[in-house]
Design a protein that fits this description.
With 301 residues, the chain is α/β, with parallel strands linked by helices. It is built from eight helices and 15 strands. The strands form three sheets. The chain has a seven-stranded mixed β-sheet with strand order 3-2-1-4-5-6-7, with helices on both faces. It has a six-stranded parallel β-sheet with strand order 9-8-12-13-14-15, with helices on both faces. The structure holds ribose-5-phosphate. Ribose-5-phosphate binds next to strand 12 and helix 6.
Length: 301
């Protein structure tokens, strides 16, 4: 069988190079342009005929990315790909997983349905699962999930002296506990209450046990930064050392990084979304999830 063809959407080059080497894949690019009327022009540089095609596109700021991505998937299929999978290191639209007010679109479900119609499988890293417990609840295609816990733990062990891990909310307990076990560090979990789209309140009952250790605030996503900023303010009042924020997906809306650094936080993220704070490499973990899907073939679950 020919080697897989890894097609990177714009902005995914760094992760594309890492994955191509892990997967022994040919890496080519998808070129996109905007016509004057703002419609998209998409072209595949490479020959998908009789190949397994992996489209690589991280899905932060997804609305501008999704149509070109779907056009590329369809073109790959029309050009003879035997399998078209999506590698999305960050999977968007996982947080609106419920109709909170009458008439709201439950975008998690709709987005999953749209992707399921265009791809044979999905591989991603730590999707935000809250009320939805598994991707199979919303995707009708097979999915493989890679976890950043090992890579985060390696980074913490190598770079943080006497870490004390802190999870932002009850949902984070399991993976914070897992990372704590991998780093031989104690941990505690905040109680969090979201008071608006960009406002949160947090509380920590047993924060006094941080003592002289380095507080490490772990979260799966940093977007507005409010969750981590509120936690960091609390921790600064309890701990002698300034906190480290270690996050899987760095989305960083305007002012988020500045807000965190102005509180004295060091901020590191994984490379699921390319950003100046990327220090934790999850390419090996994502490559395993992709290989797993490729080897199971098109139709197996
Ligand atoms: C929420 O449940 C997530 O785990 C993150 O805590 C949240 O998405 C972070 O968002 P923000 O940076 O806007 O507070």
């Amino acid at each position: 069988m020919k080697s897989p063809l890894l097609l990177t959407m714009p902005g995914n080059g760094a992760m594309g190079d890492l994955l191509a080497s892990e997967l022994d894949a040919e890496r080519r690019v998808i070129e996109t342009l905007r016509f004057p009327d703002q419609e998209s022009y998409v072209t595949i540089d490479g020959d998908p005929k009789d190949r397994v095609v992996v489209l690589l596109c991280t899905l932060d700021r997804p609305d501008d990315k999704i149509l070109p991505l779907l056009f590329a998937a369809d073109a790959a299929r029309e050009l003879g790909a035997i399998q078209v999978g999506l590698a999305a290191p960050y999977l968007a639209y996982m947080r609106q997983d419920k109709r909170f007010a009458p008439g709201e679109a439950v975008t998690s479900r709709t987005f999953a349905r749209i992707l399921s119609q265009s791809f044979d499988w999905l591989a991603t890293v730590d999707p935000h699962l809250h009320r939805i417990k598994s991707l199979s609840e919303i995707f009708t295609i097979p999915t493989s999930v890679a976890h950043a816990a090992d890579a985060l733990a390696r980074w913490i062990r190598a770079n943080v002296e006497d870490p004390f891990l802190l999870g932002p909310d009850a949902e984070s307990t399991q993976w914070v506990a897992d990372t704590a076990a991998k780093t031989d560090a104690p941990y505690a979990i905040f109680e969090k209450r979201r008071t608006g789209a960009s406002t949160v309140q947090v509380d920590l009952n047993n924060g006094s046990s941080i003592g002289d250790r380095t507080p490490v605030l772990l979260d799966d996503i940093v977007s507005t930064g409010q969750t981590l900023m509120e936690a960091a303010k609390l921790v600064r009042a309890m701990a002698a050392r300034p906190p480290v924020c270690a996050v899987v997906h760095g989305i960083f809306s305007a002012g988020a990084l500045e807000g965190l650094t102005s509180l004295g936080c060091a901020v590191v993220t994984s490379n699921t979304v390319a950003h100046e704070t990327n220090r934790v490499d999850v390419a090996i973990d994502l490559a395993k999830a992709i290989s797993d899907r490729i080897s199971r073939g098109k139709w197996s679950g």
